[in-house]
């Protein structure tokens, strides 16, 4: 324990060691200055300090100069006395750190509410299956609603985080029209609706001041392509004679790919796949996605698709795993740029609609094209 543990640190310099006056004038509580204590002579004369027999200010209070009192241990093996109430310790001797108990081992967490996620997933699956196999037009309406909600989430986050005002009204109307045109008029109808939606975005934005026009319309055209145009390929699949089974195959392969990546990556994942984009994704998870999707693809092509073959399902599953992973990474890149974790909070355990469409949207044209090449447009 150092000497300043219970009082002020020792003074150094020309005023240290006594309460005499300085060249700045007399000191409070000291004898009146005289010739022997004039400032010029005090610089060359160091009289012995006069120790008062009692406290200068009465009681145990420290003087206002912070001088050390004659208290505290004289030797290191003496037990120090506790400081008076309100006293401030200066340079206290550090106490040894007390041993801290080891933290209990933490269980590996999946990172989300699995109960809510499974419940919402099952509910969505029931709605999709019921609308898909009862009336095709109802399922087209489900796609259109998902597109509009996804556009609302995307444009809202762009405005909140980046100040980009992509016009929602022409996007929502054009996006719904795009899905319907793809189902009714095929690929040509989808392309025409996409072009008209882009034109509507350009014109709609002209009603506001020109500042930020370029970034707003660019974001609007991007949103029109990213959400409704890619979703139109699901409607194109539905137009085939076995359209519901093609759409079901597309949904199953995408879900199985995501599930395989999630399960294998959570259990065995050690090597990051793209740490700068999505730190949670691993190479082991990608292997799980490919394996699960290829097995599911072989089964679906063999038993669900007319004139399909198991080897075609292997190719289809491999392509789905790749496109679903890229789609997930693509939206992760968008969310990192925006500084958000989820696009929305509409689906407990999942985030928003866009957080569920991230793998589906880029996978739709891949599945549509491969099915056309393997078994025709039907």
Could you describe the largest sheet, including whether it forms a barrel?
A: 2 strands, antiparallel
What kind of assembly state do the chains in view correspond to? single chain
Helix tally equals 9
The largest sheet has its strands arranged as 1-2
Provide key terms for this protein.
two-stranded antiparallel sheet; 378 residues; PC_trans; membrane; 2 strands; mainly alpha; transferase; transmembrane
What does this protein look like?
The protein is mostly helical and 378 residues long. Among the domains are: 131-239, no CATH class; 241-378, no CATH class. It is built from 9 helices and 2 strands, in the order H-H-H-H-H-H-E-E-H-H-H. The protein has helices at 39-42, 114-134, 136-162, 168-205, 213-238, 243-268, 283-303, 310-338, 353-375; strands at 272-274, 278-282. Strands 1-2 form a two-stranded antiparallel ribbon. Helix 6 packs across helix 8 (310-338). The protein is globular. It starts with 38 loop residues before the first helix and ends with a helix. Residues 93-106 have a biased composition (Pro residues). InterPro entries: PC_trans.
What is the secondary structure topology, with strand pairs?
Blueprint: H1 39-42, H2 114-134, H3 136-162, H4 168-205, H5 213-238, H6 243-268, E1 272-274, E2 278-282, H7 283-303, H8 310-338, H9 353-375
Helix pairs in contact: 2-3, 3-4, 3-5, 4-5, 5-6, 5-9, 6-7, 6-8, 6-9, 7-8, 8-9
Keywords: Cell membrane, Lipid biosynthesis, Lipid metabolism, Membrane, Nucleotidyltransferase, Phospholipid biosynthesis, Phospholipid metabolism, Transferase, Transmembrane, Transmembrane helix
Catalytic activity: a 1,2-diacyl-sn-glycero-3-phosphate + CTP + H(+) = a CDP-1,2-diacyl-sn-glycerol + diphosphate
GO molecular function: nucleotidyltransferase activity
